[in-house]
Amino acid sequence: MRDAPAEMTPQQFREAGHQLVDQIAEFMATIGDRPVAPDSTPHKMRERIGGDVRLPMDGADASALVRDAAGLLFDSSTFNGHPRFFGYITSSAAPIGALADMLAATINANCGAWSLSPIATEIELQTIRWIAELIGFPTNGGGVLVSGGNMANMVCLIAAIRAKAGVAADVRANGVNGVRGAGRLAIYASAEVHTWLHKGADMIGVGTDAVRLIEVDESLAMNVDALERQIADDRANGWTPAVVIGTAGSVSTGAIDPLPEIAALCAAESMWFHVDGAYGAPAAVLDDAPAALRAIGLADSVATDPHKWLYAPLEAGCALVRDREALHNAFSFHPPYYRFDGDAQDPPTNFHEWGPQNSRGFRALKVWLTMRQIGRRGYAQMIGDDIALARELHALAAASDELEAMTQTLSITTFRYVPRELRERRHEKATAEYLNELNAAVLERLQREGVVYLSNAVIGSRFALRACIVNFRTTSRDIAMLIEATIAVGREVDGERDRP
After folding, report:
1. Which DSSP symbol is given to 176?
2. Confidence (pTM)
3. Which end of the chain has fewer CB atoms at under 10 Å, N or C?
4. Strand 272-276 relative to strand 301-304: parallel, antiparallel, unpaired?
């Protein structure tokens, strides 16, 4: 028999696996008692793993390695599954997803071609249909699971640009701005759009100068009148308005653009309508969902992230495109070394033709199993609970004489610490600058101390503390602790500084 250092006997695997499952179960049971994030530095973290130690010449016992790695991660990680993690839009992951990832890694399916991953491909196709159904998007379009929101949005943008630039073959040969007779393409989005758009415009070759950031209204949603004026100006100046991106849940405040009005304008202007629903799209499952979310079904494409509000483990994004052929045409190549066509009477789906990856992991399994465990009613309940807790936080901040409640949309609330003595002077220039500096310092200390974990937003010119709740472990008790911790740290930091 071959002596392979990577192999484990069934008994060795059982021992290591049972030990790890016990460690994970204990971690899940005590996660709320741990700091949300470690108070550490890159240097200290490097020291924990041996710094610049060289690759060992000989291997070590697998069971011991797994045990030590678990301890290392449990002691030195930022826990987005912690009930008081309110930072970025990364949800607490359903425990079934951890089991799914273990099973997926065991099979190690390459989901680039059907013949390499027959059941895995069909599970991914069903998962894509279920996501579309949940958010109210047509279920007969094209779709693919990718790493996250950036990539899901970029996949949709590539399909949009290919469709709007002209003949696909010309675009491939000459680039998006090299098609004869076509003006330079322009892309439109709210000034609150996530930075994926600039990264995507750069990567796909339209250039960041093609991006038009449209002013927002008082709710931080896109101003459609301003959008219409910009489109008209661009046409008059030789540009080809191609794509409008509506945001369904902005990263800073959860703002939702007026999607019905944008859809109507895109239809009138023969433009592609894309919705960045990486965060907010799943809220469309609610009976009382914001009216604008109902227009997701009118979009040409939608991006959403199962690892955000569908509670799947990282990483999992989903690109949905109404026109299957538009998505397929954007990515389909047939090199001679690929022979995956299969039976013409029952053609397979080969995902290497539907997105940028050839080799692809089986990321669908964790999403599929999580969706099956939770169900539509379960999602409505959990998403509704998250929103209710965010509203509770906003109400408590508004009731405090040391906090200023700012915005509240979906499950994102923004607020800031304002000392009582400065409340009446908070609009004065010197005081406003002091409050921005004060709240930035409050945020840094809260993150370092690890009781709660917030991020920030900038509302107008005001630095805000930002809490996003996409966490089925969070309760009203955690919201109360957030309020208490913010006030305590605010007083502490303010007391260390000279006021204006």
Report:
1. T
2. 0.93
3. N
4. parallel
**Helix residue ranges, H only, 339-416:** 364-399
Token pair for 133: 């159904």
> pLDDT, tens digit, for every residue of 391-434?
999 999 999 999 999 999 999 999 999 999 999 999 999 999 99
- Nearest by Cα to 143 from 387, 351, 319: 319
For CA atoms 56, 58, 62, 63, the dihedral sign is: negative
Cα–Cα dist 478/389, whole Å: 10
CATH dotted code for 109-361: 3.40.640.10
Alpha helices per DSSP H over 289-428: 306-309, 324-331, 364-399
Instruction: Tell me the DSSP string of 90-124.
Output: -PPPPHHHHHHHHHHHHHT--TTSGGGSHHHHHHH
Domain ranges of the chain: 16-37+78-93+375-500, 109-361
Q: Cα-flanking dihedrals φ and ψ of residue 190, to 5°?
A: -60, 150
Right CATH for 16-37+78-93+375-500 from 3.30.70.1890, 3.90.1150.170, 3.40.50.720, 3.20.20.70: 3.90.1150.170
Reported as a single tens digit per residue, the pLDDT across 298-348 is 999 999 999 999 999 999 999 999 999 999 999 988 776 676 777 777 889
Shortest CA distance to 195 belongs to which of 147, 256, 150? 150
- Smallest CA-to-CA distance from 293 within 278, 280, 304 is with 280
Dihedral of the CA atoms 45, 46, 47, 48 (nearest 10)? 60
Compute CA 396 distance to the chain's CA centroid, rounded to the nearest angstrom: 27
- The amino acid occupying position 209 is D
Cβ-contact 390, 469 below 8 angstroms? yes
Q: Are strands 211-214 and 184-190 parallel, antiparallel or unpaired?
A: parallel
Nearest to 127 by CA among 144, 109, 104, 103: 144
Q: Please tell me the distance from the alpha carbon of residue 258 to that of residue 15, in angstroms, as a whole number.
A: 55
Give the residue among 264, 316, 268, 309 at the shortest CA–CA distance from 289.
309
